[in-house]
Description:
Keywords: Ligase, Membrane, Transmembrane, Transmembrane helix. This protein is mainly alpha-helical. The chain has one domain (68-417). The protein has 18 helices and no strands. It has helices spanning 2-9, 12-20, 22-32, 38-60, 68-84, 90-113, 117-144, 170-190, 194-214, 217-234, 236-254, 263-271, 276-284, 287-300, 314-320, 328-361, 368-384, 394-417. Helix 8 (170-190) runs antiparallel to helix 9, helix 10 runs antiparallel to helix 11 (236-254) and helix 17 crosses helix 18 (394-417). The longest helix has 34 residues, at 328-361.
Amino acid sequence: MRETVLKWGSQSTTWLYLLLAYPVIDYVLRQILPIPVISSLWDEGLLIVLMLFTFGAFLQSNRTMPGIKHWLGAFFVLGVAITVTDMANWGATVEGFRSVYQYILAFFMGFYLLKSMEDLDKFMKGLVLVGFVAALYGVLQVIVGVKTPESWVQEGEAVTTRAFSFVTSPNVLGSYMALVTPIAAGLFMTAKDRKQKWIWAIVALTTVLALLLTGSRGAWFALAFAVFVCFYIWNKRVAGYLVIAGIIGIVALFFVPDSVPLVGKVKDRIFTLFTPEYFESSSEGGRIGRWGKAYDNMRIEPLFGVGLGHHGGAVAARHFGTIYSDSYFFKSLAEYGLIGIILLIGTVITMFKYGAGLIRNIQGSPHFFAILGLLGGLIAVATHNLVENIFEVPFMALYFWLFGGFLCALFVDQTQNKRW
């Protein structure tokens, strides 16, 4: 037994699987079996262990990081510079720095710890299965009628029950499902036998249902955009047909009676966006108003922003009493200024460019659709950050950067080393 435990503990994959189970472990330790100190620090301990493995892999690896290292390096240097120059609010600034860069370290874990395409296939399956558990829990909440906290229900809306599972909110669950649904669909497409296809079909349909039940419009639109991108990469003609089908679907949805189960609620959530009441409330105290405040803060210090942890997020709320920006990118615009937001967006786009390059290189491969689904899920999460602070949720930020590192690692292996 002791030898088995030591063997598992000495493998980085064991700790990566624990990272993939982050939302479940965190929920159990914080809500069901709270253990002093461990419940609040277990994730930091896990990241430290994984960074030690990463450092060892870096010393032994022949894998060379591509041009994204320049974007990452510049982004880290900017963060350090902003931190050390804001001594008046040192506590908030350091916490703001940690809340961003601690999770970006997962990119390096993904880049150096991944050994093969087969390992990535296993990690994707682990990610999707944990997401499936979250989806089932969320669906059951709606079935039994768990009341959604009022802060997540817009005034005047017919929707009063939104799935939120064991994660922070319906919007976070929506982003989580937008990440795992394309991957589950990709695994379905790559499955070799009927049994596996049934399994991944059930998983994909369950995560889609959970996504719909979250009522998260931002996650719906983000996934729709990601699906379009995936189809465009795969087959441009089919992508065009998809756009036409989407337009027809939206028009048809307008005529669906509100009394139709689920579809009526989806209609209510979508078309509420186009009412004068929504625009007025959003401009005064909602998203539009919050984005305007973030822009105004950027204008104070246009190049370098007002400082990390100073606006629009959890750290700013604790230290300065500011409200959330409801957009990670607008929050970053206010805190980093124009230089920082350009570096952040440039890093994300470069990561996606490598992912798309990898997909082009493996067209015809048995792994094609699974990797395409992974890229789609990451695009959905990044897009959702336009209207939500998703990267402030630890497990979502870790998943995004970890799997982005996986994609970049395989891109390097495919283009530089010709390993497969």
